[in-house]
Amino acid sequence: GRRCRRAAMSSAPATLQGIRTAGPERDLGSGGGQDITRRRIYLQRLVGDTIVSAVKTEKLEKSPWYVVFFFFLYLVVATFVILNRSNIHTLYQINSGVEKALQETSFSAGNTDLYFAGISSRQEMWQWMNQVLIRTIVGTQDDMQSRWGLSLLSFNRVAPGEGVCTWDASLRLTLRRVKTIRNEDVTSPRFSEFYPRTWVAQSVPAGEARASPSEATEPMVGVHRLKPFGDGDTNSGDTGPTDVVWNHTQEKAGYRAQGGYIALVTMPAGRDPLVHLVDTSAEVYVNPAHHLCYGVKRSATLSLVDFFQSGFFRSDLGSLAIEFVLYNANLQSMSLVEVIFGANYAGVITQKEVKTETIALDVYSDHMRYFELAYLLMTVAYALAWLRRLYTRWRVVYKDPWEYLSILSITLSLTSLALWNIYDPWLQEYLHNDNFRDPFNLQLRVLWFKNSRRAAGLATMLIYLRMLQFLAITQPRVMLISRALQASSGNMIIYFLYTSVLLVGTVTFAQTYFAHVSPDFSTLIAAWTSCTSMSFGKTDVMLNVKQEHVQLRNVFYVPFMVFFYFVGVQMFNAIINYSYNMTSEEMEPIFQHDNREKRKARLAKKQMEVEGRGCWNRFKAKAWEVLATRLARRKKKPTERSNASAVEALQFEEKVEALDDESKVKIEASFELKDVKRKTPPIHILAYLIFVLCYLWFLGANANITDNFQINKSLRDSMERSISTSSPSDGLSGASVSFNEIQTLDQAMEWIRVSLHPLIFEGTPRHVRDQAQAQGISGPSSVCLKGWNCLVAMGREGARENKALFVLDDSYKKLLRITQRRSQMVPNRGRYHANTPDRARFDGGKVSATGADVSATMVQRRFAASVDPLAPPSHHEGPAGPEGQDNNVTLWNISSALLEFCETVPEGGETSYGGFGGLVCLLEASGPAFKNQLITMFRGGFFAPDTSALVIDFALQNSNQGLLTYVELTFQVLTSGVVVTRLRSETTKVLGLHMWFDNFLPLSFRLVPGMVYLVLTCVFIYLLHQDFKYFKLADKGHGGSTGKAVIRFFKSDVFNVLEIGSICVSLWSMVIFVLWIGKDSSFQAMQKEPYTTFLDFCTGMASLGTLYNRLSAANILMIGVRPLKFVRLNERFTKLFLTMARASDDLFWFVVMLAITMVGFVMLVHIIYGSKVKECSTIFDSVVYCFRYTLGDFDFSPLMAADPLICPFFFLYLVLMYSVFTSVFFAIIDRHWIRLKVPRFQWKMNLKPLFGRICRCIDWDEDLQMEDSANATKKSLPPTRRDRVRTIYKAVQAVSQQTFTSKRAALPVGTRLIDVCHEDDQLDVVMTWSQKEARNLMAMFKALQRKKENAGNEVLFVRRDVMARVREEVRLSQREIDDSARLMRYSVRVREQAALQDQEILATYICVLEHKIHARFASGRRQEVDVGRLRFEARMVGGLRLAQASDCSEEVSLRDEGGGAGQPFQEALEAEDDDADPPPEPISLDPCGLRDPLAPVAGEMSGPVSASRKASRATMLQSMTKFRKSVEH
């Protein structure tokens, strides 16, 4: 039996020899494992080697729907929590507003206007501080009517510093000086007399570590003529030069607590600021008159002008840092503003930065706690699941890149939550004390909050990227793209490293050669960024370098672009294209299997619908039966033909799948042309051309697109030129501000007061106005812009009589309307949300004198909400209660002079803009009166701190074209204090329907094409209905209702969807046009109405015109695509359509992957950079910003300035999107490109139906071609990339199969069991048992396969049915193992004990027998001694030998011939070798027959003897006989 088993296993294939140590046998014990292995071996013998060892098609394990849904829920919760905690919109409003107000406000520097970026000297730095920073914060008494005191952007209150009174504001200056040494130690003595001392370092940057060896720390002595402030409030006059000492502070103070020369600038509202020189060694100085209520250690107090003139800003100035804190009560936020100036050894201010970081103070939210808890629990759940996978399948986790992405995302999510939960209690501590006075305390919290946002942004990005993992295990096409990218990653990394090495040399060359002429190459980082940008196609940095400055620019530029741009892009395309094609070939069996499963599912669904199986189908049938009974009609049951057609269709699809690619493409093309595609008659094409031409004609005549653009451009040019110039005495910057540069409410007020009058009354040059009046185009009192666009002026109560169109006289008084809307003001309680408890609100401590909150003392009232000037008032509950517009207009403080031409209008008032209410002012058409009214508005309380929105609207007419233009200027004050300006202009051409007889031809020119267009639209509706009837007739086999037929009709052809969409938009736009005509017809009557009613009428016409233009734009797009329907029968266009159809699945899922990846980076850029960069401030702006990166339009400079730590991630994003993902598009299209041999276009045959009868002289049948013979040899087309990759793949597979076959040939070939072992009863029993086991296994497999085909969800089927069988089999095998173990223990305890006793008995018997053998041998030895003695005696008897010699000679000779005495012994040895006892040899008593030791004795005794000897002989023979008998016994 063991020989047979060894022979069988030695002849088994290698795949079965390894079964013993593979699979689940390791978990089932030795007994069960051998049992299962034996079953597999017997199954192998029954079904054969090829079936068991055959390669099966890989099948994707799709995740259950609830797993994907749970992760999607996790993604939504994480995004909601992170966005809510980041509060990006609030941070951006304040940061951008403050930075723009400080950077983009001009100041006067001599005879020129400069901005912050243009500062280059210490004098200009001081002028900016005085004119922009200080004056903007302090303001004047005239500013108090429209702003809050001591504020930037109206609402951002500058907080007091340490020791400063609560009702004042302060700035902290930190000055760092560069140490100087004698010039003789550096250069030759000849230059020392010009420059006695020189710097030891290039500069001392702000924030550098304390006690730097290059920093000067000796006290500075300033000299000025006025006596420093003492205990009094003013200087005591000119007392001569006085020394002021400013000591260096080494302790933890100043900018970033790094020490320096520190000064505190205190600013009261409406008064001059003071400068306190901080000296930590001095005594605490307390003087409320000097704005120091709590005391500051200072050495002197100076005025701001004296401070600058004292000589502290010397030539050794290294850096100057200005710090202050802003408190916004509207948004309940705290901002840290840092203005940094850095000087270099050349004496130029090179570093100029304005940094603003903001944190929200009111972060309390009831519902957010639950979302944060859910986010935490979900993250922990995914962390535990990852650890479980690591413990159970660590080898798989180690090799899967998605697992690294998952653990990184989990780690960052937990880090962001941990940082936030540390930051939140720290922030709560900050709210209830005076820590806000120290900018360094706020800076620490800003840094902590910024790190939390960084971790949250990266976590959000990775969570979105992890969504691709679930798509990859759910959709095969996503897995295809994912595997292709993984396969190409190695080659792309190698190529990227290769180009990076080359890029290092080019960067070094560019920096060396271009640094002196371009700032883009001035540093190594700048040169690297510029060269990298050029490699991605952005060449602006090189175009800025002029050829006359650098002669070798083009020598470097052209080769660089050729290699790094053109070759690099194509290299990425080649790598990804090859990987995509190779991966497609590998996964082609998976796609075929998936298609077969889908066809089976469709067939099963069709059969269920026909047979009425399934709960939903039974419910529908029952409901329809009840409905049909009540309506006395019955639904026609689907015929057997529909079922058969569905089955035949699926069978046909399977046959098509089995064909080669070329045949498959031809069949698809034939069906593509057969399905819908009836040939379009030429008359339909002609009708469509007329339809398009009429629509374009109608649109061009009525939309006024060009006219609207020209007028809008003219207005914008006028706005750009309308610059308000104020003087420093006005309390403003003393510089110019245009309409688009307005940032604050002060600038808006100044622009209205100064620039609106010149814009209206001086917008036309004098000579142009005189020429227009001479030609009669405009009257003497006309007010025009650009000469031809004159403002429409009407009376307050309307015209007294019916005047001609656009004729102006004295009855037309009002020219322009200004509407102001104000926001509700609520008390400042230190909270933003209404439900914020007292423990979470900001109070800033208590004022010692009054006991009030510090926050309420700084800002008493705040905005409830900003009012949108173009939206109606809101009355819903906001974060702080009822919010929106202040409609209590009767309580507004309006002067009597202002009420002469202004009025307060409640909500719903007709005279206000849109009926929204507010303060409405109508300005007159007279220039002087217009200007006086503006001055009255400015001084009479028109502008107030609660002003939230301004709308300036008026109407223009253009006599050249008869155009009416409505113009709207809006100013919206946000809660951050930033003012947003908008310009809107809508132009329409008045039809003049009241004079239709005189204007019949122009009206016909404008309206007749629209009528033709409408008629043709109705014709296309009819044609679409006919196509549907044809489709329904051809679609009878599918059955179903008309609704289902309609759905299938639009699903079958995308052009049907475009056609019905174009028809709907056309009808909708015609309705809008009819409404517009109705308004136009009432234009004559509107001239008799008040001016405000006329403006509202113009607003309505402008809104209709805007809507019509938008609908027309969408309609034009669809009309432009619809002509493709007429050319799809062409073979060349069929190739394009089939290519797009075959690639649609891959393209769709790739676009989904692209969108998910881009959204992940969108969330990252929005969370990290949304508070600093305008393009990332909202989600939609961030989407556009990231999409621009995909197109190669990128700029790293704002990202580097905002947060350089996260900027490298966007370089990775640029490489991924621009180089990799765009190459995938090309790979997909190239993979699915259709190759069809298209015949040449036959012009004569196609033109014959049109011109055949006209031009008979032409041979129209000349270019007809005969079809190729079916038996002719087809010319092979050039191979595509797909064909080449497929050929390579098949060659690789053939080599692999050949190698595998050769290895299998070297192994023992499987033989039948009966050829190895002898057939017996035991083998028959084994064969019978194995066949029975195999039948049971196959029966179970077939039963499970039938259940799988009927199962709806494969995952649930495997879990419930298959795994249940597996668990039952494991349970039975475990029971067998337990039984075997029990029998083994019984054998050890019982049977082996009995066998041990038997062995002991046998051993005792052997020992006794051995003792007896030894005794017998001893006795034999004694007998041999006796025999020897007897032989000796026999020799003495010689006569016996002679007597017996003659008698025995014959007998001895005969016995010698018979074999001798050794023969019986040899036979006994052979018998013993054969395991058989030898037969006993009879002992002969004849002395002649002995061959043993007794024989010689007998021989000696032979011979003649005497009688006595005879007697002795007889005695000896008798004794020998006894001896022999004893031996025999």
What are its keywords?
alpha+beta, 11-stranded antiparallel beta sheet, extended, about 1550 residues, 44 helices, 31 strands, 8-stranded antiparallel beta sheet
Oligomerization status of the protein chains = single chain
Query: Number of DSSP helices?
Result: 44
Largest sheet: 11 strands, antiparallel
Strand content: 5-15%
How confident overall, as mean pLDDT? 76
Low-confidence stretches: 1-34, 42-57, 631-643, 672-676, 726-734, 797-812, 875-882, 1448-1505
Word description of this protein:
- By secondary structure, this protein is an alpha+beta fold.
- Helices cover 56% and strands 12% of the residues.
- It is built from 44 helices and 31 strands.
- Strands 3, 4, 5, 8, 11, 12, 13, 14, 15, 16 and 17 form an 11-stranded antiparallel sheet that branches.
- Helix 5 runs antiparallel to helix 12 (439-472), helix 16 (553-611) packs across helix 35 (1207-1231) and helix 32 packs across helix 33 (1179-1190).
